Amino acid sequence: MKRCVGIDFGTSNSMIAVCREGGGIDIISSESGKRYLPSVIYFKNENEAVIGDNAKSMQLLESEHTIANIKRYMGTDMLFPLYGRGYRAEELASLIFRKLKKSFVDYCGETEADAVVTVPAYFDHYQREAVRSAAENAGFNVLRLLNEPTSAALFYNNIGKNTGDVCMVFDLGGGTLDISLIEMNEDCCKVLYTGGSTEIGGVDFDVAVAEYFIENFRRQHDIDLKSDPIAYQQLLFQAEKAKMELSSLNEVNLVVPYITVTKKGALHFKETITRETFDAITSSLTKGIRNIIENLLESNGLKTDDIAKVLPVGGASRIHSVRRLVSDIFADKVRKDMNPEEAVVSGAAVNAAMISGVIKDKVFYDVTSHNLGVEDDNGNFEVILRKNEVYPVEFSMIFTTPELERKNITVHVLQDMAKSSLNIGNSLEENPEHFASLGRFSVELDENDESEPLIDISFMIDESGIINVKAKDVHTGKETDFTLRLKIENEILDTLEIF
Ligand SMILES: Nc1ncnc2c1ncn2[C@@H]1O[C@H](COP(=O)(O)OP(=O)(O)OP(=O)(O)O)[C@@H](O)[C@H]1O
Ligand SMILES: [Mg+2]
Q1: pLDDT tens string 191-221
Q2: Is the CB of 38 under 6 A from ligand 1?
Q3: Which residues lie near ion ligand 2 (Cβ < 5 Å)?
Q4: What are the start and end residues of each CATH 3.30.420.40 domain in the chain?
Q5: C-alpha torsion sign, points 354, 357, 362, 367
């Protein structure tokens, strides 16, 4: 039997773990001996890609050949140009999965593996599909995609922390915010509600601080450091350093000698940043986080008293203003007995063990994070399946058209609240970016049939949160399958050597 691994593909760092027979979890170290692999890809030339720590070191000098935060682009059509070729996000992500696969092979000598791969609960259909195709392209047989906060909860529950209470998993990673309310029982975790944003993460704090540095430098020297890629990358690194050190210190000093050269000589970058300044610079982000927490509670009729415990997950949950915000709302309910960076991958390994039978008699239920719907005749979003619905789930609806002369029925399927659970509204015209289009499905009608056209469209959300659509002509019984799957077909990837 193949081993089943747990994989946390992160915006900043990726991890792979397995659950041993006795239930203990092994986090598999990367080549450089660390328990995590930085999710950074560096193209040394057109045939060689370096992944992880060594790629991160090249980010500074060769930013045009280095790609970080690729998870943020999953499910988009963006092309990344590298040595004259364009790569899609899932193709680049597959290189990270290949590197994890190498660590797995080094760890146990086996070349095949089933996998549970985690995704932000807030990922929509195509973002999920992009992750799955990247993992499969790297040779993992993906058994399911598991929502990251649910994964952390499975781990927490498995180390005997079950109480029968409702816990809030607060997961702020490098690139995403996921908040899930989960009822924990000894043998069952039940996700009740979920909310979040794929536009708030640790990197956004770095960008805000770097912008502040750039503005200060411009004021002092009338020089725009942003137009110099090396200087800008240095400032992003300094911003991240400041953010991390301010988690434990009140004030930090930052220096980059020779950040730029002018006619009058070299200039150095020197800043002192306090917690107070950091808070002011990043206040729109903390406000966004607060709004998402409050909206999740309010829209589901809950009060802070209904939450028994808060589990902080993700490296960015360590940011001092974020910690303060969470403890302002939930006081002493915030737990510190779980490693925020390792909980997600450990939970994925627990789920892998549940699937392969190593862990028995435990179950969990998860819920959808977006409303699923169709575009109506007025260009508005019409919900057909509300969010927070337990999945897997299957349901169908009959569609028709009033004009008999029409030759086909087209149904535009969408998910709403794209990117953030605060993106509420039903007009596609006013806020097109609040909707993720899954496709326009067209069914040809029988021109000779005079009766009212009736098309039965069924929607299936599988255990990975991935949607499949089927249509059936009620009169003729003819079925059409609409594929919403992504397949990586770039043969260049197979010729790349991975280091
Ligand atoms: N001590 C710290 N204080 C503040 N921030 C920190 C600290 N340690 C790590 N971080 C931040 O945490 C983020 C990375 O966290 P993590 O590894 O959990 O993210 P990820 O899993 O890669 O991202 P995501 O889950 O969003 O895809 C980075 O933005 C990093 O700067
Ligand atoms: Mg994460």
Answers
A1: 999 999 999 999 999 999 999 999 999 999 9
A2: no
A3: 10, 173
A4: 1-161+338-365
A5: positive
